[in-house]
Every structure is written in C-alpha cells, then in structure tokens.
Design a protein that fits this description.
With about 140 residues, the protein is mainly beta. It has one helix and ten strands, in the order ββββββαββββ. β4 and β5 form a beta hairpin. About 15% of the residues are buried.
Amino acid sequence: MIYKIDFQDKNGNIISGALPMYSDIFLYIKSNNVGAGLNFRVKLTNQTTNQYYNLKLYPKIGSLTVTTHISTLLRYLSNLNNYSLYVEVSEYNDDTYVGGASVQLDVYPRIYNSFLPEISDYYYYYYSASDFDKFSKI
C-alpha cells in the first residue's frame, strides 16, 4: 500500500503548498509493499486544461521508494499559466492492482535557481553517421 507521496526540491526538502514549476521538483513515492514486481503508475493531470501525462515507475530491486524528476512535465502541462495539478498514483505488484492514492495542489510559474550539473562532469562526442550530437556523463 502507498505509504507516502511527497514533492521534494533538489536537496530532498519536502515542498508544502504550491509547486514552483521553474525549480527542480522531484516526486517521491514510498510503499510498504515488499513484492518483487512493485511498480507505480502515475497520472499527472492539469485540472484546467485536462492535459495529462502517464508515467510508469519502478523502484530499485529491494527498495520500497521511487523518486523521479517532474519539473519538465510540470512546465509542459502549464501553458505558462498557474494551474491545479491532480496526481493519481496507483500501486501494482507486476500487473495486479494493489492500491492507490492521490494528491491535488497548485503549480505556479515561479522562478528559483535551478540545479544544473557541472558541465565538466560531461563529455561531448559527435558520431559522423548520425544526425544528432550527444552529451554523456563521464
């Protein structure tokens, strides 16, 4: 069963109240289900426009928690306006439904310092047979 749904900043601090869409926001889900096939299906819905995104999240083996970065999705849902976000989380053991929980909160187009990794942690390479370039982590 889902034990906790939180929204965190890049330092792991829990965000209460409205979410700032231009900051780094992470969705944190914790369960007390110890099943080997644990996974979560998350639906993020903009209540104003009814636009939504579905995610399927798997915790590491032996873990009961999952954390995922959702800032980009919050911006895609926004249309640059504030909106009410409805987050519906369903818990599954393989494909068997176990339980669910939901949260509703506001998202505002606030701007804070966003976390970006040091560019020195990455290297750039170009593959001549492709039509794109890549950044890769060292």
